[in-house]
Amino acid sequence: MQLETYISDLLYRYECVTVPKFGAFVTQRVSATIDDTTNSFFPPKKVLSFNEQIQANDGLLAHYIADVEKIPFEVAVKKIDKRVKTLKAYLTQGETLTFKNIGEIVFNNEGKILFEPTYHLNYLTDAFGLSQFETSQVNREVYKKEVETIENVIPIGVTSEKRKSKPYLRYAAVAVVALTLGGFVASNYYVNQIETHNQLAQEEATQQLDTKIQEATFSLNPLPAITLNVTRQTGNYHIIAGAFRIEKNCIKRIEQLKADGFSARKIGVNKYGLHEVAYSSFETGQEALTALRNIRKSHNKDAWLLVRKLD
After folding, report:
1. Side by side, which strands form the sheet with 23-30?
2. Is 108 within a domain?
3. How does pLDDT run across 137-189, given as a tens digit for each residue?
4. Can you tell me whether residue 80 is helix, strand or coil?
5. Are 133 and 41 in contact (CB under 8 A)?
6. 24 forms bridges with which residues in the sheet?
7. Does 53 reside within a domain?
8. Do 100 and 117 contact (CB within 8 A), yes or no?
9. What is the average pLDDT value for the chain, to the nearest integer?
10. DSSP secondary structure string for all residues of 192-215
11. Residue 71 — φ and ψ, nearest 5°?
12. 51 φ, ψ (degrees, to nearest 5)
């Protein structure tokens, strides 16, 4: 029994997943962070930890295994108990237990469990599609100094003292004003000519259109009625194929999935502005979990289940 697979599935939806007589995997939401030393940005996530003191059977893991494997609840409890005994035996022998996409567990010198999480998956569904990235540092002070240097080399202002000492600056200023006014007058004349031409062309086109409308004969024949059978997907259990910042990529993904035979559709935009695409939606969690496992095996191992009521 791949116990870590069932635990991983449940960590997406619950804050605590207890393995009876062994311990509990606990998650805590952490906001997005910035590392100033490396200029790295990290999306929000769930931080994993392990609590050896929580060992009481709350039924969550056993019920999930029973639903997925189609076995009685009591049988699922026995399978968990058998697996836990094997895990403890490995730990007693000094071996390290590796839970895929969750972390590693080992006994320390005092016989206490040490847990080292591995963040290959972000169990915070709200952050789906977001990843870590780095950016270069913005050196505003350097650019400011460069601008000051350029201003010192190429002075722009002309003071009254400079105009008195250099009279040719006065004539240059007059010439600039004259050129500006001349250009403005010429520009207005050119614009007026264009507007007049456009108005005449528009009137001619309108007249030709009116003539054709009067000469046209329309034959309005009733069209046969068409009955369309449209199947609307319902349910609050959605298998997510991806979330995209650009809507064009979202539409392209839907077309690919429909070509593969899935009833893919866009189910909306989450609070991070990402367009979410679903393989399909289901009325019950059992149907959704069965479809999720099949999709992970045959099409996309990163597909996940979203439980949300759509508007």
Report:
1. 16-19, 23-30, 45-51
2. yes
3. 666 655 666 656 665 555 545 454 554 555 555 555 555 445 555 555 555 56
4. helix
5. yes
6. 18, 51
7. yes
8. no
9. 77
10. HHHHHHHHHHHHHHHHHHHHHHHH
11. -125, 160
12. -115, 110
Give the global pTM. Answer: 0.41
Phi-psi region of 167 (alpha: psi -120 to 50; beta: other; left: phi over 0): alpha
Last residue of a domain, one of 93, 123, 153: 123
Stated length of the chain: 311
Domain boundary among 82, 99, 123: 123
Nearest-5° Cα angle at 95, 11 to 97 = 10
How many structural domains comprise the chain?
A: 2
CA 248 – CA 55 distance, rounded (Å): 48
**Do residues 120 and 55 touch, judged by C-beta distance below 8 A?**
no
In a domain, 276, yes or no: yes
Q: What is the CATH number of the domain that holds 261?
A: 3.30.70
Residue 50 belongs to domain spanning = 3-123
CA distance 151 to 156: 8
Candidates 222, 297, 296; CA nearest to 305 is: 296
Would 275 be classed as within a structural domain?
yes
Q: What's the angle, vertex CA 68, arms to CA 50 and CA 65, rounded to 5?
A: 35
